[in-house]
Amino acid sequence: MKNRLKVLRAMNDWSQADLAERLDVSRQAVNAIETGKYDPSLPLAFKLARLFDLRIEEIFDDGWEDRHD
Amino acid sequence: MMDGRIGMTDPKSTMSPARAMTWLVAGLIAAIFFAGVAAGFLEAAAADGFDKITPAFGAALVGLTITSVTILLVAPSLPRWRAMSPRRQLYWSSLGGSALLGAVIAILLQIDEGSERNAASLLGDGPLSPDFAVAVAALYIVGLAAACLAYHRAIDDHEERAWLWAGLAGWYTFILPAPAWWVLHRAAVAPPVNAMLLFLFSLLINAIVWLWLKFR
């Protein structure tokens, strides 16, 4: 699943470790989400959305709209 | 927006790294000193016929206890520790507890090996003293179960997923070859099933999959 996490993190000038600390997860978890190797659980996705004050679908893109255009 | 918890420490209850190091070194010196005292005392007791606790075992027990207590007293006062979330504190505590458990078992194995029973070899099948075997088995089951319970309550989603796949891979590594080996042995085309070899192989695959999913 594609996501804008790296861009959002850069906009706030946070390192992966900074974001990991704010989410209370490991740095490896942030890296895996950013590189699309791991899709976060729903609670973690909500946590991310609240942290950036966005909706989940504004951070993650499952490609549904591309397939149905 | 985006208010983080980084740097949330209470300066009144933290300890500087230099002071913490001083306490750790003092604790280690005390551990070595009292381990020597225990060994000397038990050697003198052994000369009087007391052989329930060997000097090496007593020294190791005293040394490890003092070291553990020192770490438990110093670590919670370190700024870095206090800045951690409760989840991370539980995570590192469970890993530290597991490491301590491993050290205790390794020392017990080393002491038992002193009687030339080759207990330190994981694949060894020589006889063990019943007291030693019961102590290690109980320590392993109870200690590891407690550490695992704390660890799995503390890990994040990503690590949990890595463990689920690693556990499944380890499980298949055991259940696929074990019955096949067993039937081949019954037909006299393979040696008897070596459970420890299968156990180690399953551990190896488990570790490889976990490391790959966690750190790739």
Report the structural category of chain A. Answer: mainly alpha
How does the overall form of chain A come out from the CA principal axes?
globular
User: What does the largest sheet of chain A look like?
Assistant: 2 strands, antiparallel
Report Rg of chain A: 12 Å
Q: What is the assembly state of the chains in this entry?
A: heterodimer
Give the topology string of chain A: H per helix, E per strand: EHHHHHEH
Keywords summarizing the entry:
heterodimer; A: 69 residues; mainly alpha; two-stranded antiparallel ribbon; 6 helices; 2 strands; B: 216 residues; 8 helices; 73% helix; flat
List the helices and strands and how they pair.
The complex is a heterodimer of chains A (69) and B (216).
Chain A: E1 2-3, H1 5-11, H2 16-23, H3 27-34, H4 42-52, H5 56-59, E2 60-61, H6 64-67
Antiparallel strand pairs in A: 1-2
Helix pairs in contact in A: 2-3
Chain B: H1 17-47, H2 55-74, H3 79-82, H4 86-113, H5 130-154, H6 157-175, H7 177-186, H8 195-215
Helix pairs in contact in B: 1-2, 2-4, 4-5, 6-8
